[in-house]
């Protein structure tokens, strides 16, 4: 009977500390988004309607580039996503890592499956801080230029942007 009570106390304390960390951690179970900018992309499709199609045509389409950080309790997934008028572009980089929040500093060490993913990724050289309900990514890029990216909580994005980014499918 003593062991049963002791087991119950240990399990209850573990669960309460897990709940405490989830409640007091503003990053856990949240998605943060940074809009990088836009570019024009040459898209080939068939027919006059890219969704139906008959013959191959080429058209320049505006493309918006987003950096996305999706935090779970233990892991963070970093995604580079390009969105065109016709949906999400095929080329997308996903990196995953454990993460830890110390005061305002977020420690993330991405270890991609293939080395080139981190080299071509915009996340490769960034360090992260959590300040005023935003995540700030900063560092030097591949041409030694200082960069600062501000990631806002996805819940603060307008409905159309959230839908276009397909954040529910992450």
Automatic annotation (TrEMBL):
Signal peptide region: 1-21
Keywords of this entry: Signal
Origin superkingdom: Bacteria
Stated name of the protein: Lipoprotein
Source species: Aquimarina muelleri
């Amino acid at each position: 009977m003593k062991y049963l009570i002791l087991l119950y106390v240990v399990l209850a304390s573990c669960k309460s500390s897990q709940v405490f960390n989830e409640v007091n951690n503003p990053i856990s179970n949240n998605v943060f988004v940074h809009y990088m900018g836009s570019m024009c992309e040459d898209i080939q499709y068939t027919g006059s309607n890219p969704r139906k199609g008959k013959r191959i045509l080429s058209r320049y389409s505006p493309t918006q580039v987003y950096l996305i950080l999706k935090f779970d309790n233990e892991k963070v997934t970093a995604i580079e996503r390009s969105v065109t008028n016709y949906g999400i572009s095929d080329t997308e980089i996903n990196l995953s890592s454990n993460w830890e929040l110390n005061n305002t500093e977020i420690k993330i060490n991405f270890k991609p499956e293939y080395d080139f993913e981190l080299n071509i990724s915009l996340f490769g050289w960034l360090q992260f801080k959590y300040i005023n309900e935003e995540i700030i990514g900063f560092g030097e890029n591949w041409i030694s230029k200082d960069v600062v990216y501000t990631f806002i909580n996805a819940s603060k994005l307008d409905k159309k942007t959230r839908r276009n980014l397909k954040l529910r499918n992450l």
